[in-house]
Design brief:
The protein contains nine helices and ten strands. It is an alpha/beta fold and about 230 residues long. It has a domain at about 5-90 and about 155-230: Rossmann fold, CATH 3.40.50.
Length: about 230
Amino acid sequence: MSTEYLRLTDVHAFYGESHILHGMDLVVNSGECVSLLGRNGAGRTTTLRAILGLTGRRTGSIMVNGREAIDLAPHQIAQLGVGYCPEERGIYASLSCEENLLLPPRVGSGGMSLDELYAMFPNLAERRASQGSRLSGGEQQMLAMARILRTGARLLLLDEISEGLAPVIVQKLGEIIRALKAKGYTIVLVEQNFRFAAPLADRMYIVEHGQVAAEISREELGSKQELLKQYLGV
């Protein structure tokens, strides 16, 4: 039996007066990679931000590893073992690659050591003394992912990590996600790049107008092409 790591039930989220999520319902089991697919503005990034308490008002239920998180502050949610890799990456330009890695606090046991991270991200080992502003887009993306792995987070929320990157870097990121899955991490992947996300995900939720419009397992991909075209234009 799979163990639930994350469950959203009837989650509504707001930015000021703007009502973005309209009753999100989804489940992510421990050790799964689940992808949120949809067009821009569908509510996928807001779903990740709502999990972490980074939107405005939220209602409904957000269970993280058996704990209700809807009323917790973002730092308390992070302490439940949640790591967030935002689309904008959030690299400190004036700090070195290694200083960026060492900056976040530990939120749980089992965080990767610097040696383990450099083994997984050899590009970062080569650039450990380089300023954040001197890293390429791909190196910055790797640094943003490596930084949350050091904290001990076990639930990884990854937002558009392949966007704008060279195919060879995207391929490397896919290999890293597979390696993390093999280590037992639970991953929620927001992606516009269907061809990147589909082979990695155990299940996919299609998000439309702040709700889940459809759920597709990896095994159903072949039979759900018309549905994918309808919602994604794939």
